[in-house]
Amino acid sequence: MKVHRFIIKNIAFQPIIEITDRVFVHQIHTVLGLRVGETIELCDGRGMCARGEITAISKNSVAGSFEAPQKNSRDTDIEVTLYAAIIKRDNFELLAQKATEIGVSKIVPLITRRTIKMSVNRSRLQTILREAAEQSGRGVVPVLGEATTIERACMELDRNTDAYIFDEAGDELHGVTPTKKIRALFIGPEGGWEPGELEQLTHLKKISLGRGILRAETAAIIATHWAVTTI
Question: What is the distance between the alpha carbons of residues 197 and 113, in angstroms, rounded to a whole number?
Answer without folding.
Answer: 8
